[in-house]
What does this fold into?
Amino acid sequence: MERIVNYLDIPGEEKSAVIERLFHIGFCPAHGRQTTVKREMEQSKRDTLPQYLFVFREDELIGYLFLIGEETRRGRIFPWWAAGNPDELPLETASRLLECGIRLSRQCGCPSLADRLREDLERQKRGIGRRPEDACR
It folds into this structure.
């Protein structure tokens, strides 16, 4: 069973390894490299955006969902409202990840991001923009 983990809950000594694995599953920031990404993620705080979610199957990183926030909060490294790969995950896992992102966005005071994620979840459930299940991670 896959587990979803917030960056804030990853032990300090494991964070660099997780970020390194992130680049191996296809993530590419708009600016910078691993050190820059880690520095940005280290600024994350509970109950406020940005938040960074990771999906693990046992100890293998298979997915991510970064909740960046509204347009005024976007930066150079992550210039998006949100970034993730739920379309590459099995539907059940993608649904859990997006539902977690929706809850967290609302908790952090960004209902507009939650609404966008809800729309993405509905598209995923209809199979729009998804890989076939047998091609998922």
